[in-house]
Request: fold
Amino acid sequence: MSDSIITPDPLVIRSLEFIGPMAEAGGWRPPSELPEIAFVGRSNVGKSSLLNRLVRRKAFARVSNTPGRTREINFFRVNNTFVLADLPGYGYARISKERKAAWKPLIEGYLRRSPMLRGVVQLLDVRHDPTSDDDAMLSFLADVGVPTLLVLTKIDKLRARERDERLQALTDHLGVDPEQLMPFSSVTGEGRDDLAEAVVSLCAARSWREHDDEDGAAAPEGAPPDGSHA
Reply:
């Protein structure tokens, strides 16, 4: 009999339902009744593949070779306990200026105002330094004050020596402790359970907006974004 310990899955997917999109700032969106976790990253960072691996579905999120295809915030109810919000990728050069101009208030407005938002999963490609768009998004998230998980995608594409070098470089660039970076591979599954456990913990935690309310620092409902960039 093997002595290995089987760790229980921190997020067993029992039900998964698409509940609608949000196409424009201030437009229709599903009712905010459950804790929400938003996933955000630049185009082609591997978000769709990560989401497929996280919920253990092969075609949950469309994996496309054309970055910037997702134009809306798509909402999915998971196990009737929380909502996963899939935000449009940012930073793709071929996207028209008009679409970029539309996405900025959509993304920023949602992150700033959604009453049930519990946290954000910010995706970064481990092979590259964060772009100016990544840095701007991280600054915006810090300004809003929302709890943010930093997930490094495509870790399987690095050799062991490259991996150590890249993790150190990103630690230095972002000014965070190594423990705050979560390596992830949609191919091997590395990091899946760590991310799942973190998402479950965020959903169960007290809302960060309540802390802001106590400090008198929360942005009023409907207040416009302050000019931070996404």
Confidence is low (pLDDT under 50) at residues 217-230. The chain has one domain: 16-215. Residues 16-215 form a domain with the Rossmann fold fold (CATH 3.40.50.300). The CA atoms of residues 3 and 9 lie 19 Å apart.
